[in-house]
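Predict the 3D structure for this chain.
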Amino acid sequence: MENESTIQKIRKDYEEKGEDKVETLRKLDKKAKQPAEITAFTLGIIAALILGVGMCLTMGVIGAGGTAFYAVGIVAGIIGIALAVANYFIYKAILKSGKAKYGAQILQLSEQLLNGNN
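Done. Predicted structure below.
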């Protein structure tokens, strides 16, 4: 008898645990939003760095100064600003794609949870 309870306890540790529907809903929501968030953060950091380099070039902090570095700095700054502005629209497009991909599953699962069909 004692051996049987020990065996059952060990077996329970190795059995696959089924996740509940709320956890599944959270994972689906994360799958829908995470690619957009990662892209937005990455592109935002890149845009800020490019803009910063452009500002440093125009102010003469880096580079030898002069008209050439000033012009390159202006161009780099404009590119950085354009990327920062475009970042919002890229984020929204990727988020819309993720919501379209997982939206039906999320709505179905949330409807089951709200109606008490666990």
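The CA atoms of residues 45 and 84 lie 9 Å apart.
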